[in-house]
Amino acid sequence: xxxxxxxxxxxxxxxxxxxxxxxxxxxxxxxxxxxxxxxxxxxxxxxxxxxxxxxxxxxxxxxxxxxxxxxxxxxxxxxxxxxxxxxxxxxxxxxxxxxxxxxxxxxxxxxxxxxxxxxxxxxxxxxxxxxxxxxxxxxxxxxxxxxxxxxxxxxxxxxxxxxxxxxxxxxxxxxxxxxxxxxxxxxxxxxxxxxxxxxxxxxxxxxxxxxxxxxx
Length: 216
Prior knowledge:
It contains four helices and 15 strands. By secondary structure, the chain is α+β, with helices and mostly antiparallel strands. Strands 1-2-13-10-15-8-5 form a seven-stranded antiparallel β-sheet. It has a four-stranded antiparallel β-sheet with strand order 9-14-11-12. The longest helix has 14 residues, at 37-50.
């Protein structure tokens, strides 16, 4: 796979890759030291003010329910995304989002045109099992996921074998998902009963098949 070979060269040449690990049949790369603590705190603070945060409602089992986290969608004007019956119309890029995009693009070797922000306010905010396999993302999407703030558990589960893997996402870490990961694995961010502070997660994506918004 071309991207895997490029990533292996990056890990050999860049100090940010010194503690990197591959997971999930080598379709996920975890870089725990992408940003240092000081940089991660600064980005978190800026994003908490810059992004268009709101608590959306999605369709689950025929009902409209509030998602257990705050969410924001930013990107190029054409990057309209749909999941769980929700149309996400992108807000403009902010300076900080563009800065982080440039940083992750240098590793992923991909020009991302959108980013989904999730703000987990405490341990009760969460994300259920899912795969980012919507048609809008195309086949074998490359997704870059940056964690800022509270360390949380990121769980992965193979769709056929049921094998599970867990990664502790520290502040300033980066995950790259590529290849057949979305086809073969699900992931989640479970709740925690422990007292926890906030965590902002950015998942940079490339919308290759934008949707037409529904008209109510």
